[in-house]
Amino acid sequence: MKMLLQAPLVFLRLFYQSVYLAMGQIWANKTRSILTTIGIVIGVASVTAVIAALTGLKAKILTQVETLGSNTIFISPRRPDTGPMQHANFWSIRFLPEHFDGLLDHCPSVKRFGRQTWIGGKTVSHRERSVENVTVRGIEPDCHKIESRPVTDGRPLSVIDEIQTRQVCLIDPKLRNELHLDRDCIGQTILIGHNTFYIVGVVEPRPESVFGGGDQDRSEVFVPFKTSFKLQRYLYIGVLAESKSAEVSDDAQAELRFFLRRTRNIKPGEPDTFEVMSLQNILDIFNKIAIIVTMVAGGIVGISLLVGGVGIMNIMLVSVSERTREIGLRKAVGAKKTAIMTQFLIEAVVLCFFGGLVGVGFGQLLTMGIANIPKVEMDMAYIPLWAIGLSFGFSGTVGIFFGMFPAIKAARLDPIEALRHE
Amino acid sequence: MKKLQTMPTIAAKAEKPPSRPEPEGAIIHLRDVTRVYKVGVERIHALDGITLELHDNEYVAVMGASGSGKSTLMNVLGCLDRATSGHYALDGQNTTRLSDAALARVRNERIGFVFQSFELLGQHSALKNVEMPLIYSKNGWWTRRKRAKKVLERVGLGDRIKHKPNQLSGGEKQRVAIARALVCEPTILMADEPTGNLDTKTSESIMNLFDQLHREGQTIILVTHEEHVARHARRIIRMRDGKIYDDRPSNQSPADKPATEKDAGGKSS
Questions:
Q1: Chain-centre distance of CA B86, in angstroms?
Q2: How many domains does chain A have?
């Protein structure tokens, strides 16, 4: 019984003594230890940085979802992957405004919806000043509510503007500054192309969007949906919808799909020529991409840990042959095989942990670097706690795996031979 | 040291010839021990039928030319090596059938080794070096420190405990090594050419330390090929070709000087 109780204690003592010895060895061979662990350091640093970047991106998207509203549904034309429409012209599958007439009556889960158009690369001018490459968006009034971009000055676009096809517009503060308009610019006129528009309000600048793509720094002008067709006759239409609650989001999407198939005359059995997506779907897609990126990064990290591990094994073998006499002596004074093995194994593991620690440190630096690159939208990148745990777990495993062979070699040395070793 | 209390009576028996099987009080008892090495097809008898008995508080020198088998004998006595055949009992315990782990424990608890080249760990202080064997026995940190300090004082190095081996002289290094051998309070202290790397004067002081330890009750086995070192022992065993050819108290001169110094065995010791 006493022996049973003693066994774990003896092991614990052996363990902490081995850790202590290993620290001493690593300290005694500082340069060598640092060079040896570089492989592990790089592996761990890269895995933590990749995880931090993905975590940051995900957090960013989640905040985006919050600002956009998780009930938002995007509807846009899309060529099906199969069927006769597979190679259809984009123009032929475009949305027509009348496709959506009466939508709210047929889709009980949809709270509101708004059609919108995009006209890119317009030149906007005021007196002698002009700004090129402005995105003009034709929106229905409900789009404001769905997208939650409040009008800071003046008024939003109204149903009357829509019905009367008024030439009114909302601009963003950036454009106001570029055109050198007054701070209170409501009632002034600007030229969009060759058409005169009254400014009725100023909207909040667009939140930095991870979906925005490359036109983040472009200015925006909002005009009534119908009015946008005055600027350009043929336009692609997209639709923003909002479900009544997050719970019925799937219902709303199904209803929209059903409704659109009817209005667009898609025969039963034929694939959709449009797509209905919620932010949740986009999040799901992101998660899939994140998994792939993680796997690829994991593969690279695995290789670097393998290389690092071989480095550890090499240095441990060197250590064993350098310290053959010491091993002989330890055996002569009564060290058992297990004690010698534990000592060398723990030395390898401690070396790897040390690499892991430095690696996490470098990973943190990398993460801070990524977070501070302007316009990359990575400012929310951070290393989650589980990633740190994972890194140490991996380094420990590498230490045990690659330290085992040298440790066994040390434990098997014959004390007489070892003491005679030069 | 455990047997120190019974020391006087056993010491009285020490001068008896080592022929009777398993007498009471013998701490080492070898009977017909052989150690055979195979080198290719050749079989080399490093130990060839050794029968030997050692008692508590004996002070023995094992002498012999290179290749006489004296180092092999010490390895077998020190449980670093196993006899090929024969019987070896240490403290009444038969060691021939013990496992590696059990032999390691025997070495830890009952045997202290002193080597020709000290074998100190360079990166550790004298104290740490002396503590080292206690790491492998069931002793806590505090006991280790206390015992190591005590034994360092005993060998006259109480003021050198924080010094690293490269800050110590050869004699001091060997004293640290002796302290390390004594720290587990072994039944037998074994020294393999303990003065081989030391000058004459330092050798003499180390030998005086062995004498002192013997007076304090320690059983000591010296392996040496130097006559003046062996003179310190009370009993001298002379070996040739794996056999004991002379075994007598050191105050008697050997009756039969080795006729030839040639390596008849022709093998490593």
A1: 20
A2: 2
Containing B120, the helix (H) or strand (E) segment is none
Residue A221 has which token pair?
């002008």
Asked whether residue A344 falls in the same domain as residue A202, the answer is no
User: What is chain B's pLDDT, residue by residue, as a tens digit (269 residues)?
Assistant: 444 444 444 444 444 444 444 445 688 999 999 999 888 888 989 999 999 999 999 999 999 888 888 989 999 999 999 899 999 999 888 888 889 899 999 999 999 999 999 999 888 899 999 998 988 887 778 888 999 999 999 999 989 899 999 999 999 999 999 999 999 999 999 999 999 889 999 999 999 999 999 999 999 999 998 888 998 999 999 999 999 989 988 877 665 555 444 444 444 44
Q: Same structural domain for residues A50 and A83?
A: no
On chain A, the residues whose CB falls within 8 A of the CB of B130 are none
Tokens (6 digits) for A176: 């106001």
In terms of domains, do A50 and A86 share one? Answer: no
Q: What is the DSSP letter of A210?
A: S
Domain that holds residue A386: 16-64+284-420
**Same domain for A374 and A262:** no
Q: Among B72, B75, B80, which would you mutate to test the A interface (most chain A Cβ atoms within 10 Å of its Cβ)?
A: B80
Q: Across residues A106-133, what is the average pLDDT?
A: 87
- What's the rounded Cα separation, in Å, for the pair B54 and B68? 20
Regarding the domain with residue range B4-249, which homologous superfamily does it belong to in the CATH classification? P-loop containing nucleotide triphosphate hydrolases (3.40.50.300)
Q: Are residues A139 and A261 in the same domain?
A: yes
H or E element at residue A248: none
Q: Beta strand pairing status for B219-224 and B93-94?
A: unpaired
Chain A positions touching B104 (Cβ under 8 A) are 331, 334-337
Measured in whole angstroms, the distance separating CA A103 from the mean position of its chain's CA atoms is 35
Of the candidates B81, B107, B121, the beta carbon closest to that of A334 is on: B107
Domain limits, chain B: 4-249
Q: What is the pLDDT of residues A50-63, one digit of tens each?
A: 888 888 888 887 77
Using CB atoms within 10 Å of the CB of residue A70, give its burial: 0 to 12 exposed, 13 to 18 middle, 19+ buried: middle
Asked if residue A4 is part of any domain, the answer here is no
- A313 with A356: CB under 8 angstroms? no
Residues A132 and A205 in one domain: yes
- Nearest chain A residue to B108 by CA: give it: A334
A235 — pLDDT class (breaks 50, 70, 90):
confident
Q: Are residues A217 and A295 in the same domain?
A: no
Whether A266 contacts A273, CB under 8 Å? yes
Of A217, A249, A278, which residue sits at a domain end? A278
Among candidates A10, A338, A416 on the partner chain, residue whose Cβ is nearest the Cβ of B81? A416
CA A311 to mean position of chain CA atoms: 33
Is the same domain home to A209 and A290? no
ipTM above 0.90, yes or no: no
Pick the closest to residue B108 from A196, A232, A334 (CA basis).
Answer: A334
Whether the Cβ atoms of residue B57 and residue B11 lie closer than 8 Å to each other: yes
User: Among A278, A304, A336, which residue terminates a domain?
Assistant: A278
> A112-133 in b/e burial notation, b at 16+ Cβ within 10 A?
bbbbbbbbeebebbbeeeebee
